[in-house]
């Protein structure tokens, strides 16, 4: 913390206008200006816009809470919300455990660690738009890699990207390929677990599973909690893959078969930048914000019981 | 990072020799074999999509997706044709991506580090308050400011007759000039590791605060600056929604991600020429993949640091 160590009893002029303080204010001024223009100002503007009807051409027209009260009867709003939550429910319990398993394997003092770690992270380096066109073909029912592979073991795979039912599982499978970030973060946390704890557990005769359950997981529970929060928010914000893989121009104006890839951010994007319903889009943004906030609050409450905090030192 | 813990951990010699002895037990050997078998299988699963991508990008239209791993014949011509493909103006897209990425990285690294230096090592009233605002900004959801920020750039375009604002590349990198909350947060911690004495000494020698930042602080925090630069390089090179919103209507200003999306929509869904789309995808991923292979350590360290803040 930058404790204010300037002479405490000095005059106002001295405290605020000495050379060090002047340099300090000058150097942080870009952030303050940027905050006002790109964060603080827009935050207030967004709140106001959400109470208006605004099509970019005519001036905003105040409508009170109409945008919010219109939401419950908007079918596509519910549909997009449902799609985003379905994706979250598929991705969260598969992606993070998969990443944790990979990190646990890498933590077993393996040789050539950076090679394996690099291999697991490389897909995440690939731009998402490039990964999306690749996976669109991998999941394709016609000569797609996945169904070809399944066919060799006698399984006939579903029409992943064409069957509305399989669109979100498809995206969750693709997301398994890009969990590398969490492998690295989990591994860093695992490497920070004090070795003495394992030695103590060994002396107590704990087997590998007991060590995992009673030492490893509690010690990295803070990072696991962090990952759950971040992945929840990111999943509810899914956009790029859906936009690339299910363009409305191809699916008769819908986002994928039967709008099955109409995720919340996609709907918000359409309202804002296709229909120029800026007021309605702002209301959608605030609703998503409060939904996310509520979920994070619940996760925080749950974590208080589950996350181990070191109070002994 | 791993090597550091190896050296530092006391009692390590004991466990190591113990492990060496245990390593000779048959159950241990089987365990190790299973471990490496699992790693090889997972690595193959992660790599197979890449191999498939490159393999199919080297096939002509008649042989694309024929199920063969090694193309027959290997059709290098695709990698020439892509530069003459009117639906995918590769050089224009590349130019725009390079402009946005280069300007974005330079401006965000410069301003974030200057702000972080001031917050970490200059004493002035209100610095703690500003730091709290930075923390708050990090928690800010992007979706809420999306529409108003777009409207600001639209206004700017109106006022400047379209020279700056929507329909130009400026909105894609100019925000970097004002620093990024996350990077400021990261860099501030690095600057805090530098002793005040160093600054005092430089002050006695008559150096200005900017010179201290430029000539002493920046060289000392090079690894952290590199991590930030890599982060931003990745973010800007991959950014899709930004260019879509700000230059979506101007094909001559499209960046690679937007160009690839449109190419796949027309050429893929329309004409089923996915091998050409694969070529474009390979070319677009290449700079990042090469950078990763060269500087893996820095990529990994940056990601690991970003997780520790939780």
Brief sketch in words of this structure:
The complex is a heterodimer of chains A (313) and B (310). Chain A has 313 residues and is mainly alpha-helical. Chain A contains 15 helices and two strands.
Walk me through this protein's architecture.
The complex is a heterodimer of chains A (313) and B (310). Residues 1-8 of chain A have low confidence and may be disordered. In chain A, β1 (52-53) and β2 (61-62) form a beta hairpin. Chain A has helices at residues 12-17, 19-49, 66-70, 75-106, 113-125, 128-138, 145-152, 167-176, 180-191, 195-203, 208-219, 221-236, 240-245, 264-274, 278-306, and strands spanning 52-53, 61-62. Chain A is an all-alpha fold. A two-stranded antiparallel sheet of chain A has the order 1-2. The radius of gyration of chain A is 25 Å and the shape is globular. Chain B has 310 residues and is mainly alpha-helical. Chain B is built from 16 helices and no strands. The model of chain B is unreliable at 1-17 (pLDDT under 50). At the A-B interface, α2, α4, α5, α6 and α9 of A face α3, α5, α6, α7 and α11 of B.
Task: Pick out its properties.
A: 313 residues; mainly alpha; 2 strands; 1% strand; B: 16 helices; 74% helix; disordered N terminus
């Amino acid at each position: 913390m930058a404790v204010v160590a300037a002479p405490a009893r000095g005059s106002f002029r001295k405290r605020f206008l000495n050379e060090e303080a002047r340099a300090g204010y000058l150097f942080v001024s870009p952030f303050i200006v940027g905050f006002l223009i790109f964060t603080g100002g827009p935050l207030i503007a967004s709140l106001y816009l959400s109470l208006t009807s605004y099509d970019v051409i005519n001036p905003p027209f105040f409508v009170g809470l109409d945008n919010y009260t219109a939401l419950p009867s908007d079918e596509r709003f519910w549909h997009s919300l449902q799609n985003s939550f379905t994706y979250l429910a598929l991705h969260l319990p598969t992606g993070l455990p998969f990443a944790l398993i990979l990190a646990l394997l890498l933590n077993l003092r393996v040789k050539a660690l950076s090679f394996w770690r690099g291999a697991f992270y490389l897909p995440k380096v690939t731009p998402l738009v490039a990964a999306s066109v690749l996976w669109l073909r991998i999941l394709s029912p016609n000569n797609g890699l996945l169904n070809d592979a399944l066919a060799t073991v006698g399984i006939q795979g579903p029409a992943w990207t064409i069957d509305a039912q399989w669109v979100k599982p498809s995206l969750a499978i693709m997301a398994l390929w890009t969990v590398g970030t969490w492998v690295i973060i989990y591994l860093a946390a695992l490497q920070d677990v004090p070795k003495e704890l394992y030695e103590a557990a060994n002396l107590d005769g704990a087997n590998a599973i007991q060590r995992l359950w009673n030492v490893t997981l509690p010690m990295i529970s803070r990072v696991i909690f962090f990952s759950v929060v971040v992945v929840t928010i990111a999943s509810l914000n899914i956009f790029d893959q859906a936009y690339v893989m299910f363009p409305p121009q191809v699916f008769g104006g819908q986002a994928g078969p039967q709008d099955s890839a109409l995720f919340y951010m996609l709907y918000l994007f359409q309202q804002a930048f296709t229909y120029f319903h800026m007021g309605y889009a702002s209301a959608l943004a605030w609703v998503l914000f409060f939904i996310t906030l509520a979920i994070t609050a619940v996760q925080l409450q749950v974590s208080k019981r589950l996350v181990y905090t070191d109070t002994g030192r | 990072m791993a090597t550091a813990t190896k050296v530092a951990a006391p009692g390590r010699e004991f466990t190591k020799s113990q492990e060496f002895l245990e390593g000779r037990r048959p159950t241990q050997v089987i365990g190790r074999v299973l471990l490496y078998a699992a790693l090889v299988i997972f690595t193959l699963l992660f790599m197979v999509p890449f191999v498939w991508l490159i393999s199919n990008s080297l096939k002509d239209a008649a042989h694309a997706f024929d199920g063969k791993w090694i193309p027959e014949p290997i059709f290098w011509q695709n990698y020439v044709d892509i530069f003459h493909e009117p639906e995918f103006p590769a050089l224009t897209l590349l130019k725009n991506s390079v402009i946005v990425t280069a300007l974005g990285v330079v401006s965000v690294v410069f301003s974030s580090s200057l702000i972080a230096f001031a917050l970490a090592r200059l004493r002035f009233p209100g610095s703690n308050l500003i730091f709290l605002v930075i923390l708050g900004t990090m928690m800010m959801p992007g979706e809420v400011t999306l529409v108003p920020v777009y409207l600001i750039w639209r206004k700017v375009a109106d006022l400047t007759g379209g020279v700056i604002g929507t329909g130009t590349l400026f909105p894609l990198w100019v925000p970097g000039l004002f620093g990024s909350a996350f990077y400021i947060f990261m860099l501030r911690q690095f600057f805090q590791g530098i002793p005040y004495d160093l600054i005092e000494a430089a002050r006695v020698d008559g150096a200005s605060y900017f010179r201290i930042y430029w000539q002493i602080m920046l060289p000392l925090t090079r690894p952290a600056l590199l991590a930030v630069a890599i982060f931003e390089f990745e973010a800007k090179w991959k950014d899709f929604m930004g260019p879509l919103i700000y230059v979506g209507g101007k094909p001559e200003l499209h960046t690679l991600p937007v160009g690839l999306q449109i190419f796949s929509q027309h050429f893929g869904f329309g004409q089923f020429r996915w091998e050409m789309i694969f070529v474009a995808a390979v070319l677009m991923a290449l700079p990042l993949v090469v950078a990763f292979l060269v500087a893996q350590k820095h990529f990994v360290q940056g990601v690991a640091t970003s997780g520790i803040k939780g």
